[in-house]
Amino acid sequence: MKEVDVNSWNETILNNPKTVLVDFYAEWCKPCEMIKPLLEQIDTEYTEIEICKLNVDNNPQLASQYAIKSIPAIISFKNGQVHRQLVGVQPKENIIALFK
Prior knowledge:
Layout: E1 2-4, H1 9-14, E2 19-25, H2 30-45, E3 49-55, H3 60-65, E4 73-78, E5 81-87, H4 92-97
Parallel strand pairs: 1-3, 2-3
Antiparallel strand pairs: 2-4, 4-5
């Protein structure tokens, strides 16, 4: 999974031809740590998508722009536009549904 920030956001997320899932997380967030292995598994199983991580503590402007109030939050982007969003620890099938 690729780490993104405000400097790489447009190129990596908004201008990406693939569907991109962005995991909004923080280092101190225990639920974020719980979902990380699942996201890594999905990242290796589904090559048609890209999964990226954004640290909300280091990038508060992006967290605010996308109205992230709770983490973990996962937003799927298609053609640079928000497609779907999940908040909290979710089962694998719910995360997969973000890009299907």
